[in-house]
Every structure is written in C-alpha cells, then in structure tokens.
Write a structure and sequence with these properties.
- With 419 residues, this protein is an alpha/beta fold.
- The chain has 2 domains: 151 residues, Lyase, Ornithine Decarboxylase, Chain A, domain 1; 244 residues, TIM Barrel (Alpha-Beta Barrel).
- The protein contains 12 helices and 21 strands.
- The strands form 3 sheets. Strands 4, 14, 15, 16, 17, 18, 19, 20 and 21 form a 9-stranded mixed β-sheet that branches. An 8-stranded parallel β-barrel has the order 5-6-7-8-9-11-12-13, surrounded by 5 helices. It has a 3-stranded antiparallel β-sheet with strand order 1-2-3.
Length: 419
Amino acid sequence: MDYFSYENGTMYCEGVSLEQIASEIGTPFYVYSAKSFSDSFNTFSNAFKGREKIICFAVKSCPNIGILSLLGSLGAGADIVSGGELHRALRAGINPEKIVYAGVGKTRQEIREALDAGILMFNAESAQELDVLNEEAKKAGKRARIAIRVNPNVDPKTHPYISTGLKKNKFGISVETVREQFRYAAGLDSLDVEGVHCHIGSQLTDVSPFADAAKIMVSLIKDLRADGIDIKYLDMGGGLGITYNDETAPEHEDYAKAILEAAGNLDITLIFEPGRNLSGNAGVLVTRVLYTKDSGTKHFKIVDAAMNDLARPSLYDAYHGILPVCETAETITCDVVGPVCETGDFLAKDRIAADVPVGGLFAVMSAGAYGMSMASNYNSRPRAAEVLVSGGNYYIIRRRETYADLTGPESVPSFLRNR
C-alpha cells in the first residue's frame, strides 16, 4: 500500500491527510488513490508489451463511475456482469468496443441493451443462452459477437466461495463438451463466434493455475480453428490476487510470463479482466471509534463502520489490516466491531491493534475491492461516502447517503394513506 503512508505520525493518501478528510466530510468513508490505480494498470499493461491485448477492468470490484472514468482514460475497457454495470461503464465514458459481458443469468432486456450499445463481445455461459443471444440479435437486426466461457476444471487454490473454474461451480461449460457447443453456436445465423473465455477464480496467489488454464484454452483454440471456427480472442478473465496480510502476490511480469509461454506464437488478441488486482490496495475504509467496551474476556472497539459497509470479514472471514490514522505505540488485543445488530458484524476478531481512543480513527486497509461494491443499507444505515485523491487534492465521487435516500424509492400504499 505504497500510496497510504505516515507523515509526521498521520496517515496520508498520496498528499492528503485522512484526518483532514474525516474532519471535513465525516466518517465512515472509502478513499482511493488515483496514482495507485494508474500505476497498477500501467504495470499490468506493460507486462504484455508487444502483444495485442484489451484490459477490461472488472466493474464489480469497484464500480464507481469516477474510478471507471479514470481507468478508461488510461485505455481500460470494462468486464461487466449486469445491465447496471453496462450503464455505469457507458456513463463513465468507457469505449463500448472494449466492453465484454459475462455472467450466467443475462436477461433478454440486458442483452438488448448491450446489443444497442455495440459492446465487443458476450461471454456466453450455457447452451440456452446461445439461443437467446441469437434470438435477440435477430430481432434487433444485429449480429452478436460471442465467446463461450469454458470451465477448464482447474483448481484455483483459493477460497471455495470465489472459486469458479471447477466442474462443481455454476460458471461456464465443461471443457469436455464445449467444442460441441462452439460448433452449435457457429451454426446460428445471428452470432459471430470470435472468442474463448475462462475465469477460474479470484484472489489467486499462484500463477500455475493460470498457466494450466491457458494451455487448455490454447489447445481448444487450435481445435476450433481446425473446425473452421475463426477464434480471434482469448479471454483469460481475472483473478490475480493481492497482499492482504502475509500472502505473496504474484508480480505482473510473472503472471504475463505464464500466460505468454502458454500462448506461444498463437495469433490471438488477449483479453484480461483484472479487478481486485488493480483496486484492492488502492483504497481504504476510514472509520471512527465510538465506544470501547470490556466484557471481562474480550475488549471491543466499537466503530461507526459495520458489516453493511465492508461485508468481506463477515462473509468470507477475510482479513483486512487495521491501522491507526494517527500513530500510537500502544496496542491492545480486541475485536473491531460495528453498530449493526448481528454477532457477525465485525471488521476484525482477536486482533492486536493500535489502542485508538474514543474519537480516534482507524484505516481498514486493502478495502478498494468488494468494499463499497458490496455495501448495503442493512439496519437502514446510509451508505458511506467515496473519495478519490489525486496528488494534493481530494474529490467526493459519491456523496454520503441521507435518510431521504433510504426511503426515496418506497411508498405507502393508498389504502394506508388516510388512516
């Protein structure tokens, strides 16, 4: 997290003090480093220098249109999984010719919207979806460019909830039967079969599963070309991990070497869908200590951020570093918990953390991916603000929600209005 560092005992994001932001906009809030995003994207891209490629940021990891606009300005496309993510990508100015649409449950309406936008490609995930894509393209008088998502049955060696490339997972079509589906798709009159796609999981810290998957995909492409199907794109998905605690995340160069060795001299445009790898360590969640409490067996730091703001610890028992915004030498073993009425509402358990007093601030590290993205209004809590820092300035890219925002889409039925 090179972009979050201490200066004179206070944590800064680039050139802005987190304490200053907290005093001016309140807590909790997410704060992102623009330089972290740009440096990570450029390093990833440069690792594949000399090869035809499209880097499509996985919108689900950090969908704010301010972030998407920043990445789009660097040349990024978008990996989307819903009509809402398509809307966000287009609002942010992402070139539709760099948008790929994955997801196992695309609706007909979403498919029509993507066809109208002129996206690069749909990543189809089932035989029935191929028929629906063909039908909707024909109705619209268009041709749908597609890849078929292949389930290569490669163990990603990650958390089972974020493993996607094994036979038992819901994603893609089995590598043993997918060739038949490619032939079927090639015979449909409104589809252009142009790619193969795989995504084996998330938060991978070993490049060998990527290499194994890439070899399977390259072999498949050669077979498909022999069948007369002109495959132009190899979409390797995303999943490259980051360091949260003591993991050793692969360097972009090591990842590129594994993929390029598998691809060899194959004439193909590579597509990548990094999300967490670009966004995870680009953001932190800043929260204020409301109360401290001793139960006799545990010490609690009760903060104003909760599981609705950052779900990953409760959902996956995920680790996030928790550091004081203002340095202190005093430490304490504690649970850092939020105000939500659930025992599962915690950001850390039995953690040796700085003994931050009531009113002090914690920075929950590595929160740029699947933080605000997964936030909810559980317990009718307004969602946090989002801030983007560039150099010595910060910009509010999502205002804090209000109570009016909570009830805005709701209404009281007419039979209750005059009680």
